[in-house]
Amino acid sequence: MTANHAARDALPHQDSVASDETNEEAIVAEKANGDLGPGASRKHEAASLTRTDATHDDIPVQPPPAGKKTYAGAVKSRKPQSSKPAASGGHIPYPPLTNDEMDRASHEREAWRAGGVRFAPLQVPFKRRMQTAAVLFHCMSIVAMVSCFWFTCANPLTWPILVPYLVHLSFSTAATDGKLACRSEWLRSLPLWTLFSGYFPAKLHKTFDLPPNRRYILGYHPHGIISHGAWCAFATNALGFSDKFPGITNSLLTLDSNFRLPFYRDWILAMGIRSVSKESIRNTLSKGGPDNDGQGRAVTIVIGGARESLEAQPGTLRLILKGRKGFVKMALRNRADLVPVIGFGENDLYDQLSPKTHPMVHRIQMILLKVFKFTIPALHGRGLLNYDVGLMPYRRCVNVVVGRPIEINETDGAEASQELIDKYHELYIQEVERLYSAYKDSFANGKVPELEIS
Predict the structure, then answer these.
(1) Which residues partner with 123 through β-bridges?
(2) CB-based contacts of 446, cutoff 8 Å, min separation 6
(3) What are 132-156's pLDDT values in tens digits?
(4) Are 71 and 29 in contact (CB under 8 A)?
(5) In this predicted model, which residue has the larger pLDDT, 13 or 178?
(6) Computed from CA positions of residues 436, 442, 443, 444, in that sequence, does the dihedral angle turn out positive or negative?
(7) For residue range 305-350, what is the model confidence (pLDDT) as tens digits?
(8) What is the pLDDT of residues 384-440, one digit of tens each?
(9) What does the pLDDT read at residue 447?
C-alpha cells in the first residue's frame, strides 16, 4: 500500500472522531438549553450512530444549530465566582463589642450635701482613694515638674548638675529622631497606670488586627479637654495595647512645645511620647522593626488638636476634621495605613463654658490659640472630696475603640497629589462615621450624641 492510500484511509477515521465530539457537544448543549425531552436521549444516540456511520460514506456532518452554545464553549465562557463573602456596602461589618460598665454612681448616692455640693462619704474603698490619687498625680505632673525645675534653679547647690542638663536640653533631638531611646516599658507598665485607668474606668477595644509588617498612623477622636483616654490607651500599657496588637510599637504624639519644659520633657519621653512634627513622624515611621525600616511602628495623633478641645461638651461629639489633611499627607509619604480611633466618653469627663453662651470667653481662647498654638479651656469637674466642684475629671467610662485600618499602597516616599490626599481623607472620614455608627449605642454615657464633623 502506498503512502497516498494510507493517508486516504486515515481521513475517514479522523472525520469520525471529530463528528463524535461535535455530536456529544451538541447533545449536552441541547440538554442544557432544555431542548431534549424525556426519552429523547436514545433518539439522539441513534442519530449519533447514524451520523457516525454516514461519515464513512463521506456524508457531511451538520454543525450545531445557530445560536446554540456547545458545552465546551459554555465552560470556556464561564467566569469564576469570588470565594469572598460580600459584606454590606462592600465593607466588612464591625464586630459586636460589650460594655462592661460598672455602677459608678453608688458612692455618689451615699454623698452628703452641704451648700448644694455633694461631698464624698467617709466609707470609700481604699482602692478608689488610690485611683483618685493616681489621677491627681497625672493632672498635676506638669505643674509639679516645672515647679521642681524652678526650685533647682533657686538652689546654687544644684547648679553643677543643672547647667549641663540645660546644655543637653538645648541640643537634644530625642523627641524627633525616631529612635525611642528614652522610652521605658517599665515606667509605662507601673501599677500607677492601672489605678489611673480604673478611675474612669477606661477600656481599649480591638475590632481588627493590625499586621506587624505595616506602618500605621492612628487618629484619635475626640480631643476632649486633656485626652485622658489617649493617655491610658497609648502612653501606658495599662489597657493592654501590646497584648491586643502584638508586634506594634505605638507612640503618642504631642505638641513640640511640651518638650521645651525642663524635667517634664524627660518624663513624657520616658512614657514613649514624641513630637507631632513632620520630622518626628517621618523618623518614627522609618526606623525600628526587624529590618529597621519602620515595619511595626505606629504613631497616634489627636487630630482635632486644641481647637477641638474647645468643642468638648458632655453629650456631644464635634470633630474638627474636614480641614485637617496633614496626617493624610504623612501617611502617603511614609506608606502608613490610616486607623481611626474613637474615645467614647472622652468629652464627658469635664464640663466647660459653651462658646454659644459665653462668646467673649471663646474669643479670648481663640486669640490664645492663634498666638501660642494652645489654649486654656474654661473647664470644671469634680474635686478630691466632692463630686461637683474642682478640676478633677468625672468618673465616667471611656471606651477607646480602634477601627479598621485603611491600607495605603499608592506612594512610597513620593510627593502625593492633592487628588490622592482628598481621596484618602474622604475615605478616612467615612470610616470614622462607620466606626461611630457601629458602637454609639453601646458606649454612650446616657443620651447618644450626634456626630458632627467640621
Answers:
(1) none
(2) 315
(3) 999 999 999 999 999 999 999 999 9
(4) yes
(5) 178
(6) positive
(7) 988 998 898 989 999 999 999 999 999 999 999 999 999 999 999 9
(8) 988 888 999 999 999 999 999 999 987 655 678 899 999 999 999 999 999 999 999
(9) 76
Instruction: Record the pTM.
Output: 0.77
CB 362 within 8 A of CB 305: no
Tally of residues, the chain? 454
Helix 126-154 vs helix 191-199: crossing angle, to nearest 10: 120
CA distance 237 to 279: 26
Cα–Cα distances in Å, from 111 out to 23, 116, 122, 129, 380?
93, 11, 9, 15, 19
Residue 112 has a CB neighbour count (10 Å cut-off) of 10
CA pair distance 405, 217, nearest whole angstrom: 9
Cell numbers linked to 122: 467617709
State the Cα torsion 277-280-285-291 to the nearest 10°.
170
The band of 259, judged by pLDDT with boundaries at 50, 70 and 90, is very high
Give, in order, the Cα–Cα distances in Å from 447 to each of 103, 153, 315, 348, 451: 17, 50, 7, 11, 12
Contacts of residue 131, defined as CB under 8 A and 6 or more positions apart, other chains included, come to 195, 196, 198, 199
CA–CA distance, 160 with 69 (Å, rounded to integer)? 94
| Cα(265)–Cα(146) distance, integer angstroms | 10
Q: In this structure, are residues 276 and 374 in contact, taking their beta carbons and an 8 Å threshold?
A: no
State the pairing for strand pair 317-319/451-453.
parallel
Joined together, the cell numbers standing for residue 106 give 453608688
The answer to whether 339 and 403 have CB atoms below 8 angstroms apart is yes
Contact 389, 180 (CB under 8 A): no
